[in-house]
Structures are given as C-alpha cells and as structure tokens.
Amino acid sequence: MKKYILLMASLLLFFSCKEENETEEKVAEVKVEKVTIERFDKLFFESKPEDLPKLKQQFPFFFPEGNGDEVWQKRMNDPFLRKLYIEVQKKFPDLQSLDSGFEDLFRHIKYYYPEFKSPRVITLIEDNNDITAIFQKELVIVPLSLYLGKDSYLYEGLPKYQVQEYEPSQILPNMVTAFSMGRIPVPKDNTLLSEMIYSGKELYLKDMLIPDIADEHKMGYTKEQLAWSKANEGEIWRYFVDRKLLYSTDHKLMDRFIKPAPFSKFYLELDNESPGRLGQWIGWQIVRSYAENNKNVPLQQILAMDAKALFDKSKYKPKSDAE
What we know:
By secondary structure, this protein is mainly alpha-helical.
C-alpha cells in the first residue's frame, strides 16, 4: 500500500512539473519591452538646485504643485535622507539583475493579462515605512531605501518582524502585492475564512507571476518560519476548525492571524515559536489546493471566486499529529 501511495505521489508530482514547464515555455515566448529602471533616487540627490526644472519635467509626478523649489532643496540636503541615499548606493550600485527580474515579471503578467503594457519603473528614496511598492498602469515605483537588508543600522528601533521584510529579495513579491490591488475582490462578509482566502489569492498570484521566487520570500518569512508553518500546518488547521473560527467575524482574529505581527496568537505556549500571519499562510494552501484540483479554471476566475465556494471545492484537509 505504501509503495502504491508513493507511486501515485510521484506521478502527480511528475505531471504537475510537466504542466508548469509547459506554461513557462509559453511565458518565455511572450514579447515585452526591455526594462531599464530609471534611477530617480540617484538623479535627485546628485542634482544641483539649478537642475530642478529638468527633473520636474522628466518626473512631474514626484513634484506636486504648491511646493516651491526650497522644499525640494531642503529635501536634497535632509541629513537622514542623505544617509539613506549613501546606503542605497552601497546596496544597489547597479540594477541589472532587477531589470531582468522586472522584465520576467512583466512577461508573466502579460501572459495572464494580455492587455498589459509594461510601465516605467522608477526608484526613489522614501522615509515612509508604510509604502514598500507602487504599481500603477503606467508607473511602478520602487523605494530602494526600504530594501537595505534587515541588519541596516538605519532601521534600528523598528520592529524585528517588520524589518525582516526589508530585504532586496522582497522587491518583486511586494510588486506583485501592489499589482494585485483591485484585481482581487475585497471580502464583504469579514469572516476569518474570507480574509484568509483573500490573502491566499494574493500569494497564489505570486506563484503564477514570480514562480522562481522562493516561498519564504513570497510570504515575507525566514526559512525557519516557513519550515515551522509547514511542520505545523495540520495542527494550525485543526485549531481553526475545532474552535469554529473560520466563519467568525470577530475583528480580533485579524490581528491574531492575518495582520503583520511578531507571532500568531493561539493563546498557547507555542505562540512565541510561531510566525505572524499564519491565517494568510493557511489561506494560501487552500487556494493552492483548489488550483491543483481544478486545473482548468483560469487564474483570473480563481481570483474572482467567492471564498466559501473556493474553499468547498478545494478539498483542502491537512493531517495533524492528533489524527
């Protein structure tokens, strides 16, 4: 019996890999414009006051009306922003690998969204920690100052769970998150399950658009946090089911299992061992299970599906140690 199960698992893996390879071959044939990232961060902080008119003409969206040139000159000479600029130039002396990364991302987007046209990609230095990526129809903005690495001295005082995502490896995953805005319907019933699957759809979109990126980076986890999630998946699911949390609208569940946090809150001894956002992680596995069991359903239809309907057809049921 064990040999039969292993054989079936091997066959499923083989055909799954074959399908993925065929899809990637089709994606590789998609034509997109060559990406050359524009370094506004460098241009701005290396400019002189007399260069401002030219910069305004080239990047009008960074210079809203109502601010005189003295505002921008002050920003050029701001001590903290100058430190960010120096560290950004050390961390990102060139962006060739990021150019190719964006080009591959745009190729995947165009494969699934044929009407897509490659936007301009522009880098800047930003002191707002809440904005990690902007993805608009004609413009993508990358705040390089938020990807200096978790050990950067400039992030001292910020929460560890937040800073661990300030790595260069998070740039493309964060871009997909920004791209997903408006493409995945926001839950209306506010149940934990709906919020889990909303997050799961976003993460599944990363599977499709940046397939070569490691799962821990898609999730914003460390390798250890990802391993913990996999090892305890069945127990996490059992906890949600046994306590009848899936269809609960208790807003505290969002803080406990969906929103960024140092750990998830089961109110058990294992809490400090767990990563935050485990509701997102489980939601991802549910959407993956649905996609695996419904291979003919297009990506955009999966993203638009009602959460309960998707869950009911997902056949998701991980085993826990107690079973």
